[in-house]
Amino acid sequence: MNANSGKGFERSNAILAKAKGDDLERSCRRDAIFAAPAEDGIERLEARFSGNGFAPHRHDTYALGLTMAGVQTFSYRGASRFSTPGRLIILHPDELHDGGAGGEDGLTYRMIYLPPEKIMAAVEGLATALPFVRDPVADDGPLRASLIEALDELDGEMGELKRDGLIAEIAHHLLRLGDARGRAAKSLDRRALALCRDFLSECAEEAINSQRLEEIAGLDRFTLARQFRALYGTSPHRYLVQRRLSRARAMIIAGAPLAEAATASGFADQSHMTRHFAKTYGMPPGRFRALTLAAQVEEKRNSVPLGTAAG
User: Fold this and answer.
1) pLDDT tens digit string along 117-150?
2) In a 10 Å sphere around its CB, with 0-12 CB exposed, 13-18 middle and 19+ buried, how is residue 215 labelled?
3) From residue 130, how far is each of 74, 124, 145, 181, 281 by CA, in Å?
4) Residue 99, class by beta-carbon neighbours within 10 Å (0-12 exposed, 13-18 middle, 19+ buried)?
5) Pairwise CA distance, residues 227 & 282, whole Å
6) DSSP readout, the chain?
7) Can you tell me the distance from the alpha carbon of 101 to that of 196, in angstroms, rounded to the nearest whole number?
8) Other CB atoms closer than 10 Å to residue 300's CB: what's the count?
9) For tag attachment on the chain, is the N or C end more exposed, with fewer CB atoms within 10 Å?
10) How far apart are CA 49 and CA 247, in angstroms?
11) pLDDT score of 300
């Protein structure tokens, strides 16, 4: 991302306050999504919307973010919520929610989507279930500092060392703010579940059935389904669909035709992908492509040609 679309993520509240003023100016521009390069199953983005941005949908990841400008409104667990600049969004995996701007000035926010297995790995020995934060809108300084660092510099990858450190920090904050007590599952076959998870991720474009997973895990399909949800926050089928969608999403951002992205990612056809895409991202893939294209056009328009910078 260029300087205009990447402002505002220094490491102090004072500088963040200044960034919110910069983003108010940006919020008057057309709707767009700026997506960072996908990295080890982690997605980061900046979204700018006026009106309703997303229809009701679910992720199989933690969705953690920071409201940059405007009022962020959404429905979550049966209640209407709102977040103002500087506040945090904390959404648990597989929870239905929507999203949009709560005022005429529009909305700008950044989000990071963290797979639950990475959070569980980071709290190994400290919790037996995924941390659950009941309030989806928070004002927590330590978590804010970690998210500011994670959501900085969306034009490149974080890198393994920075990424792993931030995952550990964020997992600790979720455990501190959340509640894993009373949600602990009975003994889980973590090795078998990890084998299934890796297989679903690596072979997402293939046709996969319950019998194949039973053979990999050495568990019957119903035990596998229960334990998989307990550990990863979603079912094996939804995990598989999400991996296909992640591949399709990356191809769409790169400019691939929708039909090509669908078949290359393991969907039967474009309409099959479209149904799942809308359920997961709250918009059809055609609109997502238009929003990411708008962001790319804006970045090119605002970029400084080589040789024109002072010094």
Assistant:
1) 899 888 877 877 789 999 999 999 999 999 999 9
2) exposed
3) 23, 10, 22, 10, 22
4) buried
5) 28
6) --TTTT----SSHHHHHHHHHHHHHHTTS--EEEEPPPBTTBEEEEEEESSEEEEEE--SSEEEEEEEES-EEEEETTEEEEE-TT-EEEE-TT--EEEEESSTT-EEEEEEEE-HHHHHHHTTTT-SS----S-SEE--HHHHHHHHHHTS-TTS---HHHHHHHHHHHHHHHHHHS--TT---S---HHHHHHHHHHHHHTTTS---HHHHHHHHTS-HHHHHHHHHHHHSS-HHHHHHHHHHHHHHHHHHTT--HHHHHHHTT-SSHHHHHHHHHHHHSS-HHHHHHHHHHHHHHHHHHSPPTT-S--
7) 39
8) 9
9) C
10) 24
11) 66
CA distance 78 to 83: 16
The answer to whether the beta carbons of residues 91 and 63 sit under 8 Å apart is yes
CA 180 to chain CA centroid, nearest Å: 21
Whole-angstrom distance, CA of residue 136 vs CA of residue 64: 9
Single pTM value for the model: 0.74
For residue 74, which of 93, 94, 101 has the smallest C-alpha distance? 101
pLDDT at 186: 56
**What's the CA gap between 296 and 130, in Å, rounded?**
36
